[in-house]
Amino acid sequence: MILRPIILSNPLKPGDVWLSFQRNPEDIQRNPLYRSIDGGQTFSKVKSVDSSELVAFGKGDNNIPAIYLFGRVNGAQKDTLYKSEDMGKTWKAISDPQTLQFPAAYWMEGDMRQKNIIYVATIGRGVMVGELQYSQTFNVFTFTKSVVDNIMKLF
């Protein structure tokens, strides 16, 4: 069962369009990540990705955006948060699937103004802000704050 598509336009390169379908978590079929470099005329699978649940652009280096992916690469058995700094050729896990999962993740956005910041909207848990924290053993996103309290003040 396909829940909804995610269609992203590369904010730094006209005609570069990415497409993902959020899947039913119980579905054993994997959802490829698709990319078009001709403005959506044709799409092809991003071969480095096994399954794509959520995808977002964020600030990168040298006019190349970072791409964040919640899904599976390299035969992973659990959804994990990944970051690519080379337009999806390679991916680096930035969450530990054993300790950090997003079972209710609904939407994800990368910050285009500041590197290594993402926002994850969840079903029933508000919006979380994550910042990539570097360590010698594992580079992981630490979700340091929730903006749900600030949003609730509006109502």
UniProtKB/TrEMBL annotation:
Q: Which residues form the signal peptide?
A: none
InterPro entries from the entry?
WD40/YVTN_repeat-like_dom_sf, Xyloglucanase_GH74
PANTHER family cross-referenced by the UniProt entry:
EXO-ALPHA-SIALIDASE (PTHR43739:SF5), XYLOGLUCANASE (EUROFUNG) (PTHR43739)
Which protein are we looking at? Sortilin N-terminal domain-containing protein
Domain of life the protein comes from: Bacteria
- Gene Ontology process terms (BP): xyloglucan metabolic process
